[in-house]
Amino acid sequence: MSTVYIGVGSNIGQRTENCRQAIKLLDSADLKVLACSSFYKSEPVGYLPQPYFINTVVKLKTELSPLDLLSKLKIIEKTLGKDIKKRWGPRSIDLDILLYDNNIINTPDLQIPHPRIAERSFVLMPLTEIAAECKHPLLGQNMRDLLRKLDNTSKCVKLEGNCHSERSEAE
User: Fold this and answer.
1) Who's near 90: CB < 8 A, 6+ residues apart?
2) Where are the domains of the chain?
3) How do residues 3-58 score in pLDDT, each as one tens digit?
């Protein structure tokens, strides 16, 4: 069984509920959810005139290969109505493989570790919450140390609750 960390985010509709629904769909016969960080509210990156995101990170165990996992994530995104018209644009749900054991994969369809982990507070803050000592396979530093180096953490705010809570923010 492999240990995988998935970034979950939404900035359209009932953002927190969208994330919870995605996590429920992740917890299936071939994926076992082990942990879920708190929810975080963050500014959009790239394409800015859009609503703030709700983000979380989920730790999973799976026997799926990285490519099979990616296919499953795409199915879950489609099920939950993901329809992107612009790169980094608004989305009902976004599921990203952040880490897959210590694997390093660099193909046109899949990059593991996620290429922008070390730049994004909305990834590092929840990832550090549930995997502070986990090492980045390329950078050789743990998540806590990568987070300490960021200067944009003020753009990401921890909210009350997580995937197991009833509510974490007013929609």
Assistant:
1) 11, 12, 50, 51, 84
2) 2-160
3) 999 999 999 999 999 999 999 999 988 899 999 999 999 988 766 678 899 999 99
Rounded-to-integer distance, Cα 77 and Cα 157, Å: 24
Strands (E), the chain: 2-10, 31-36, 38-42, 53-62, 94-100, 105-106, 111-112, 156-162
pTM: 0.91
What CATH number is given for 2-160 in this structure?
3.30.70.560
Distance CA 107, CA 45 (A): 23
Would the pLDDT of 96 be above 50?
yes
Dig out the tokens for 20 from the structure. 């919870």
3 state SS of 156: strand
Q: Answer whether the bond into residue 108 is a cis peptide, omega within 30°.
A: no
Instruction: Let me know how long the chain is.
Output: 171
